[in-house]
Every structure is written in C-alpha cells, then in structure tokens.
Amino acid sequence: MVERIRDFGSDNHAGVHREVMAALHRVNVGHVHSYGDDPYTDEAVARFREVLGPEVEVFFAFNGTGANVTALAALTQFYDAVICADTAHLHNDECGAPERVAGVKLLTVPAPDGKITPEGVTAQISERGDEHEVRPSVVSITQSSELGTVYSPDEIRALADCAHARGLRLHVDGARIANAAVSLGLELGQITGDCGVDVLSFGGTKNGLMLGEAVVFFNPELAQHYRYARKQGMQLASKMRFVAAQFTTLLTDDLWRRNAGHANAMAQALAERVRRIPGVEVVYEVQANAVFARLPLKVIPVLQQEIFFYPWDAKKGEVRWMTSFDTESADVEEFAALIEKTMAERNAW
Question: Least C-beta-crowded within 10 Å: which of 40, 54, 190, 243?
Fold first, then answer.
C-alpha cells in the first residue's frame, strides 16, 4: 500500500475528488456512441450553458496544453501571432506546441506581477501591417496568473476592449479559473463572457478532475473550425463520456467553488503562517492557491528532501508552493513547522 503523501508541488499532484470519481462510476454502464455523440456529453454542455450562457459552444479536451493550443489554432492563421505575458504557460511550459501545432508566433509582454496591460498589448502591435511581419490576432491571458495573481473584471474588460478595437480576440488560459472566481467572489461568467472574453480554456484537472479541460467559445461563430483543430491536435476523446461527466459534476452543487475555495484558503493559511518565520519573504500577493516565497538558497534542498515543491527562480531563492482541494490544515502546519525548524537550524550552520 502506497503511503498517503500530500506535497506543495502542484495542484496537478492531487488525486480525484470523490464526487468526480463517483461520476465516472455512474457513467461506466453500457454502450453509448463515441466522440461526444452521447447523452453524458450533452448533459455537460447543458450545464456549461446554464453557468456561462445559453449561446456558448463547448468542447472537451484531454489537457491544458491541448485546450490552449487547439483553441488558438481555431482562432488564427499560420501567419498570425499571439500576444501573451513573458511568464505565460504558453510561452514557458508548452514545449513550443503553440508554434509547432497551432503554427503561431508568440509575442511576449513583460508582466512583473503576472498580468499584462493594454499598454503592453499595444506595444506589440506594429503600425506597419505589411507582409514582412506576423499579424497579431489573439491576446492570451492566464487567470489566475502564473504568479498567483488575479485579473479583476475591469482589467479583463480593458484588455478585451483593447483587443477588439484592433481586430484581435481575447483568449483566457483558465487552468485555475475557478480559483480566480472564488478569489474575486464572483461567478464564472462575470470574469469571462461578461467581460468580453472570446474563448476560454476552462480548467478541470487542477480542480479535482482525473483529466480534462473544456474549450468554451462565447461567440459561436468563432467555433466553426474548432472541431477540426481538436481532431488534428489529437484532443478528441473517443470515450468522451468519461471526460464530460466529470464536468457535469464539477458544475453541480458548486463543487468547482468548494474545491477552489478550499485550495485558496489553504494558500492564505500557509502564507500567513510562513510570514511569521524570520528569513522567509512572501514575494507576491496571495490571491489564489499559490504562494511564492524567497528563502536562503541552502534551505531549499533541505526542505525538498522532506516535502516536495518546485523552485521558481533558483538564483533568487524564490520557490512556489501550491495548495489543492485536498490540502489539509495539518499539512500546512506540518510544512510551516518544517520551514521554521530548518530556518532556525540554518542560523547554527
């Protein structure tokens, strides 16, 4: 029997929420048609329309990279570019998939707090507009950002207005969209479609699902090419019911909110606890389920031997601690106590 261990490496490290696992068992009966032509997929799409609006078009994918890249592929031509933060997952953690699979160039914008601004977007839009340079066609933001910060509705609306005024679309990488909505105390639609978002990659894996993301088009006309982009991008599940049923459960009885709210609360608790430890500095505002901290370089590997987490900027001694729907208060206290003990011992080194 594997020992039960919880760490602070990633919300991807967590297991499957028991209600989601029950949903998988519930639909694991009999035969239904494949590739989404089944009642369970219809049910999931209906739930999305209840939450995000009756006109949305919804498609399911396996993972976040697949959702992002196929969404961008459906919005762009092979000579187009996507404007994103220099910290964006698209840019740093998708192994060139946007360039190779979607065929787009990424134009990055400095984002010291993880968020880009309309000014940053316009700086990447040339006045030339000729065939010697790529054509920016999409602005992509991450909500919550890679630094754990959250865009407000006003910030999203300003980016949408900036993009639309220049003929661009606004895409949201919403791997942690639920955490952002809970942080803001708003509904999912209030920080997406209501703010002018065109396409959303809706995260499920980081919020209690076994696997699965959804690509949501708020303008149905933009979805006309997506089915082909998804198939060519190897994101079309044959046994779609097992992806779709998870989302039905996530969007029922506020499970998405309960899971994300708990993860956010654990991050706040961890941040409050470690701020009291001399020599530990929390470097970004904790708004979702990520805590970024700066530690003495020698302390980091010592801590990692006991409880796993990732370094963020090793040269600066910055690390990232992620909390999940299944993180417990005891986990937070155990980790904080380990940091406190190790920091105290360091002073005697």
Answer: 54
**Residues 201 and 104 occupy one common structural domain:** yes
What is the pTM (predicted TM-score) of this model?
Answer: 0.96
User: Which residues lie closer than 8 Å to 295 by C-beta, 6 or more apart?
Assistant: 279, 280, 303, 317, 319, 339, 343
| Domain that residue 296 falls in | 255-346
The answer to whether residue 10 sits within a structural domain is no
Mean pLDDT of 106-131: 93
Q: Does 151 reside within a domain?
A: yes
Is the pLDDT reported for residue 348 higher than 70?
A: no
pLDDT tier, 314 (very low <50, low <70, confident <90, very high otherwise): confident
Structural domain tally of the chain? 2
Each residue of 170-180: pLDDT tens digit?
999 999 999 99
Q: Determine the average pLDDT of the residues in 124-140.
A: 89
